[in-house]
Design brief:
By secondary structure, this protein is mostly helical. The protein is built from twelve helices and six strands. The longest helix is centred in the first third of the chain and has 30 residues, at 17-46. The protein has helices at residues 2-9, 17-46, 54-67, 72-84, 112-133, 159-183, 185-211, 226-230, 241-244, 252-257, 266-277, 288-298; strands at residues 98-99, 217-219, 235-236, 283-284, 301-302, 310-314.
Length: 329
């Protein structure tokens, strides 16, 4: 489908100017959405769930993720850590919330302008910033990224996989540079660069909304265990994009409990575990745009001041004397 959309896009420049201004954004949204589906397949390869063959998983994952400028093995390793420590406020690897104890007492809800600016920055720069600087991930106390074999994300025996991932990125960048030189930089951006930004938007949106909601706790110390963390995620309905993105958003609870189940069995498996999980299964019918806005506006910190070890999101830093340990009802 990526190739089909790319072929159709070659006719956009033949359209009248007014239609061109409409056709390009439509192509970027459609192609970026379809490319996100490929990213999800590579994500599944990273879990070694795409095929029974680990080799097939790694070959497919390396090709697809490299084409999308993602260091496959490096991401696979850090993502595995995320699954092993989901919900641990000190050890998770993605979207670790700020603690109230390290924030300014009395901070309140941010203005709508602040939220809007933060949203633009997060959705445009969030993904590359995570890969290059591990922003929003665990603080290792020194330089951390997904490209250096010496990064604290990786063990010494994993360094060769990091180098292989870097080679994949280098090859992809060489192809992009060649295309820019041959067909023009503007052409490369129109056909590939802008859709990639859309794909990156989807990656940030999914990851953020999977684990950011007023109903989801984080844990610290002895309160955390793997199952508690795995269930601290929420399924959401993304409409038609559920199909194009292989249901990564509406079967995510299942994915954290059974990450080896491939996407083509995710729906049936998700339905099977819902009655077993009962009240521990979390889902939301809130429109995605509203869920995103509310999360950015109200999920500003987690309350670690009360000392319960169960940390709930809040937009206001609680007073140090706060004693309630009850979460949202």
């Amino acid at each position: 489908m990526v190739a089909a959309l790319l072929y159709v896009a070659t006719y956009i420049t033949a359209l009248p100017t007014a239609l061109t201004l409409l056709a390009w954004p439509m192509y970027w949204i459609a192609q970026g959405g379809v490319m996100t589906g490929l990213w999800v397949v590579a994500h599944e390869c990273g879990h070694r769930a795409f095929s029974d063959s680990e080799l097939i998983c790694d070959v497919v994952g390396l090709i697809l993720h490299s084409a999308l400028l993602v260091p496959y093995h490096s991401w696979r390793i850090s993502h595995g850590k995320h699954h092993r420590s989901t919900g641990d406020v000190d050890k998770d690897e993605v979207y670790l919330p700020k603690k109230a104890s390290t924030s300014l007492t009395g901070a309140g809800d941010p203005s709508n302008v602040v939220v809007a600016v933060e949203a633009v920055v997060m959705f445009v720069l969030g993904w590359p910033a995570y890969l290059m600087f591990h922003l929003s991930g665990r603080d290792y106390g020194r330089r951390t990224n997904h490209f250096e074999p010496s990064s604290p994300l990786f063990s010494a025996k994993q360094s060769s996989m990091v180098v292989l991932s870097d080679i994949g990125i280098a090859v992809a960048l060489a192809v992009i540079a060649y295309a820019s030189y041959t067909y023009s930089f503007v052409g490369m951006m129109c056909y590939y660069g802008m859709p990639l930004l859309v794909t990156n938007f989807w990656l940030v949106l999914y990851t953020y909304l999977h684990h950011t909601d007023m109903s989801l706790p984080h844990y610290e110390g002895k309160e955390w265990n793997w199952l508690k963390g795995a269930l601290a995620t929420v399924d959401r309905d993304y409409g038609i994009w559920n199909l194009f993105h292989h249901h990564i958003g509406d079967t995510h609870v299942l994915h954290h409990v059974f990450s080896k189940i491939p996407h083509y069995h995710a729906q049936e498996a998700s339905e099977a575990i819902k009655p077993i999980l009962g009240d521990y299964y979390c889902s939301s019918d809130e429109p995605i745009w509203k869920a995103t806005w509310d999360a950015m506006k109200y999920c500003r910190f987690v309350d670690d001041i009360n000392g319960s070890g169960v940390l709930w999101f809040t937009s206001k830093v609680p007073e140090a004397t706060l004693t309630s340990t009850e979460g949202p009802r």
